[in-house]
Design goal:
Strand order of the largest sheet: 1-9-6-11-4
Number of helices: 1
Largest sheet: 5 strands, antiparallel
Mean pLDDT: 95
Helix content: under 10%
Bound molecules: dTDP-4-keto-6-deoxyglucose
Low-confidence stretches: none
CATH class: Mainly Beta
Number of domains: 1
CATH superfamily: Jelly Rolls
CATH topology: Jelly Rolls
Radius of gyration: 15 Å
CATH architecture: Sandwich
Shape: globular
Order of helices and strands: EEEEEEEEEEEEH
């Protein structure tokens, strides 16, 4: 597993690199602006933290319409992606480098560092009916396109 490469050979996703603003003071500012760095209008922000076990697994679903941008702003996490044809694993461990996760991408998060904070920007409000929760349904949907 590697830190994010510059491109991904997976449908509906790509690396997002946010600017790092450094000046003569200590500290760095990274900024994510809707429709500039993030390819959608941001309707919801959530973050996942308080992970006690490296082997915890989250995700294991795809979204029908929701677009998301994931940034590991502290620690590290492994993101496994599957577009129905190809798979890739990416380690997110830089606060200014994230992933645009478009529609119909099966994803799973694992290898959480105990100090991991995964920040997620999304294109819409939470809606359980947007989730595809079984891999079989996901494959049927993407292969029917
Ligand atoms: C995703 C990955 C990257 C809400 O009520 N509102 C929310 O905005 C969210 C995100 C979750 N929830 C509730 C729904 C479930 O009862 O929190 C519970 C856990 O959600 P879920 O099983 O979807 O959590 P993860 O970590 O598997 O997935 C999350 C996002 O929900 C999901 O959209 O793509 O992170």
């Amino acid at each position: 597993m590697n830190s994010p490469p510059s491109t991904l050979n997976i449908r509906n996703c790509r690396i997002i690199e946010l600017p790092r603003i450094v000046d003569s003071r200590d500290g760095i500012i990274s900024v994510a602006e809707a429709r500039r760095h993030i390819p959608f209008d941001i309707r919801r922000v959530y973050y996942i933290y308080g992970l006690n076990y490296f082997h915890s697994i989250r995700g294991l679903h795809a979204h029908r319409k929701l677009e998301q941008a994931l940034f590991c702003i502290n620690g590290s996490v492994r993101l496994d992606l599957d577009d129905g044809w190809r798979q890739a694993s990416i380690k997110l461990d830089r606060p200014n480098v994230g992933i645009y996760l478009g529609i119909e991408l099966w994803h799973k998060m694992g290898d959480f560092a105990h100090n991991c904070i995964l920040l997620v920007l999304t294109s819409d409000y939470y809606d359980e009916s947007d989730y595809i929760r079984t891999y079989e349904e996901f494959l049927t949907l993407v292969h029917s396109r």
